[in-house]
Amino acid sequence: MALRKFGRTGWEVSEVGYGMWGMGAWSGSEDAESLGSLQRAINLGCNFFDTAWVYGDGHSEKLLGKILQANPRKKIHVATKVPPKTMAWPAPADSALDENYPPQHITEFVDKSLQNLGLETMDLIQLHTWNDNWLEDLRIGPALAKLKSSGKVCAVGLSLNRWQPWNGVKAVRAGFVDAVQVVYNIFDQNPEDELFPACREKNVAVIARVPFDEGSLTGTLTVTDNDPSGSQSASLSGRGLPTGSGGRCSSQGMECPAQFPPCCPGLVCVPASTRAFCEPATASSSEMLDLLHRDEKRSGLRIDLDAR
Fold this sequence. Notes:
Structural class: alpha/beta
Number of strands: 10
Largest sheet: 8 strands, parallel
Shape: globular
Number of domains: 1
Distance between the termini: 25 Å
C-alpha cells in the first residue's frame, strides 16, 4: 500500500482508505462481516478510515472502535463527522449556522464520537454539511480552533454538499480547515475548477468521495440489479449528471472509472462496501484498483468512496 501526505497535517495515509457508511445501518449489513472486512483492510495496509455519527447513530463508529482496540500497535487515522442539528442533507442554502452547527452542538457530538470510538483524541473531525455563508457567523472559526486546542481533535474538515464543490472555496481560503470531502469522479470533475486550486494554495487535503459513483462505474451493475423495474439502475446511471451541474462525462467512463488528471496535491481512495476486503483479491478487483490509481497517483489527491 502506497502512502501519501494528508495535506498540511503531514500524516502519512494510505492512498486507499475505507468509507464506513454501508456498515452503519444498511439493510443486509452484518457486524461480523463488517469487522472482518475492516480487519482485512488493515492487513492489506489501509490506515485511513472515514465514518460519521449518523452512520447508524454511532454504530459505525463503535465498530471502528472495536477494530482500533484489536490493533493497538497499528497507526490508524480516524476521521468522523458531526451531523447537522437539523439532520438535513444537504444543508438548505438559506439556513443559518445556529440551526445546523451551534458551537455546543459540535462539542456534544465530538464527545459522543470519541466515546463511540474509545479515543481521547481523534485525527479528523468534519462537519457533515456546509454552506460558505456560515462564515459570516464569527463563532465558527474559534469553535473549530477550540476543538484542536482542547486536544480532542488534531484536524478539522468539511464534508461539502453533493454537487456543490464551489460551496466551500471560501472556507478553504479562510484557512481554518485542514481537509475537505467532495464528490469527484468521471461524471463530476467540477472540483477542479475552483476547489482544487484553493486546496493547492492552502495545502488542504482532499477526500474525494464516490469515485465509482456509488457502484455504477465498477462494471458490476446491470439494469435489473436489486430492482426488477430498472428504476434504481436508471437513477444510478444518471446521478452523476444532475440538471445544471455542468458535470463533464467521459465516453470511456465505464472502462476507466477513475483516471483523474494530476490537478491537486493530496487525493486518496476509500471503498465504502462492507464486502470490499472480505474476499481474496481477484484479478478484476486488482485491475479496478490499478485503474483507480494509474493517473490520480500523480495528483496526490485523496479519494474517498464514502457516499455522503
